[in-house]
C-alpha cells in the first residue's frame, strides 16, 4: 500500500523541479558566454577596481568572475576557489566557446566550397 498511513492518500513527490513556480524561483547566474566576455578583461574585476556597493557582500570588492558571485572577504573567496563547484565552472569557462560557424558545420549547412 502506497501513501501516508494517517490519511490514506498518495503524495505526489515526483517532477518537483519541473514545476513552473520552481523554475521561476531559481536563482539565475550569468551564462557561460557572458562569463567568456568577462574573462577577456579580468583586470576590471580586481578588488580595488570594482566600485563600492553597500548592497553587495564585502562592499562588492571580492568577485569570482567565472561563478559570477560576490564574497564578504578575500579568505571566503580563497576558500570558494578551492571548491568543486568553482573548479567545474572554471573548466567550462576556459573551454573555447562555440561559434556560429561551428554550429553550421555540425548541422551540415556550410557555405564553403
SSE diagram, text form:
Blueprint: H1 20-24, H2 32-39, E1 62-64, E2 69-71, H3 74-81, H4 84-94, H5 100-107
Antiparallel strand pairs: 1-2
Question: What does this 3D model show about the protein?
Answer:
With 113 residues, the chain is mainly alpha-helical. 35% of the residues lie in helices and 5% in strands. The longest helix is centred in the C-terminal third of the chain and has 11 residues, at 84-94. The chain is flat.
Features:
113 residues; mainly alpha; two-stranded antiparallel ribbon; 5 helices; flat
Strand fraction = 5-15%
| Span of the ends, CA to CA | 66 Å
In percent, how helical is the residue content? 25-40%
Identify the strand order in the major beta sheet: 1-2
Computed CA radius of gyration, to the nearest angstrom: 22 Å
Order of helices and strands: HHEEHHH
Unreliable segments (pLDDT under 50, ≥5 consecutive)? Answer: none
Basic shape: flat
How many DSSP E strands? Answer: 2
Overall pLDDT metric: 80
